[in-house]
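Hi W.,

Here's what went into the run:
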Amino acid sequence: MELHILDHRLKIASVPRDSLHSCTHGVFKLAFLAEKTRCKFFSFTQTPEDYTLIVDEEGLKEFPASERLTVADATWAALNVASGGGHSPAAASAVGVTKIAKSVIAPLADHNVSVFMLSTYQTDFILVRERDLPTVVRTLSAEFIFVVAVDFLVLTYFSDITSPARRPIIHPLACPLNRFCITSLDPATLPSVATLLMDIMFYSDGFPNNLLFTSSSNEMWKMVRIGGQPLGFDECGIVAQISEPLASGDILAYYISTYKFDHALVPEEEIDNAVSLLTFRPELSR
Amino acid sequence: MELHILDHRLKIASVPRDSLHSCTHGVFKLAFLAEKTRCKFFSFTQTPEDYTLIVDEEGLKEFPASERLTVADATWAALNVASGGGHSPAAASAVGVTKIAKSVIAPLADHNVSVFMLSTYQTDFILVRERDLPTVVRTLSAEFIFVVAVDFLVLTYFSDITSPARRPIIHPLACPLNRFCITSLDPATLPSVATLLMDIMFYSDGFPNNLLFTSSSNEMWKMVRIGGQPLGFDECGIVAQISEPLASGDILAYYISTYKFDHALVPEEEIDNAVSLLTFRPELSR
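Here's what came out:
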């Protein structure tokens, strides 16, 4: 498993649910006409609370007129977890926050580095503030060795780590009834589904037609939402609180942070197991 | 030839060239996801001066947040010129403002009815203010007889009309160097070209790729732009001033009004002929 520090300077922004129209022009361009922008990183997440946009500085330039866009102050760097095999389908099955709970998430939490997780079908992105990068490298270099590559810093994972003390979960959890499908789309096929995606992203409350989006396997996922009040960006250890118990139960999990809350996705047949692991209070069993 | 009074209540609006982003959300929905709106009439015209939108009252509801949208006060009705054969390709060749210059345009001008012309590949729309409809029906009923149809009023053309006295052209004319292609798209194929059209409509100055838009024939068109200062909506006879000389020369012409100017399109091999007809001053030859 490799950990890359990607060459992006990312901004995290939020758009109110009732104000997406003010950003439609920019979002459409970034989502469907990427070749017309210099943006190299674009993420769009809809939750009941808001729309979360993650873009690099070039992407942010596409929203000159969006006074409804709230952009967090910090600039973030992206750590990219990729298996040795790169992004092959085989490697894809090896991702998920569970796989990096002990090797990456826990050490960063131990050193008070706030992380913003963004799992995708192919890989996981761990966003950390640029100003924390020295700490990140110092922290992880205890477990990794440096290999300088052409266009990014490659940290090659070596040894496993002994599990730290159990972190108490300090934020309320919620399990929506929704079932989720985690899937991936070949960019080359994007034009053929553009109007459907436009419909889903901008003009529909639900998911009117997911026939195009059935994952290769038929696995469905359930969500654990973390946070009652918006979490903010300063608190450390939230991802670790969730990912470590799931890792201890060997439950594969995707983890998606948004501007206001965090979201862990686990295979639906594991949701009960995951909830019991997350709600288990060791101090009560002493 | 038939003239239909369509059941639309239309509004004519203008968006500044630098403010399209404020209307992108609504325009995309009307252009690419028509089934999600109750709008039955939508027209989008880009000129160097502005974007002109023509929508019915339902369509206008898609622009709640577009304070940059300037909507003309009047509500317009649409007269639709269709050949007997309806909208078959054969019939399409029979449209163009030239065909209705004497039978529709001239009589309306004679009775001081201001018209807003909108030619399309398939047919021509003559927009008149709702308040002028009684005058329109009275005027044209001298040359047409009424046939009441199921969902619209059909006026079936009977006799030709003697040409009225030559109307002097009172607005400056201009001939851009551009060559234009007048074409048509099967709505069923719209999704397959949505991203290309999005690119053309919103993110490109020019026409980056017109391979998809070559007309069945290879005929190209040249434009005569009418108006130095914005024409406004009150003046009568402008379309007549242009269409009658072209009709006298039997030059097929499409005519497109926008919020600020009028535009006549003639086959490029006819442009010199058209210009000489339009700039001929009978009073000078007396």
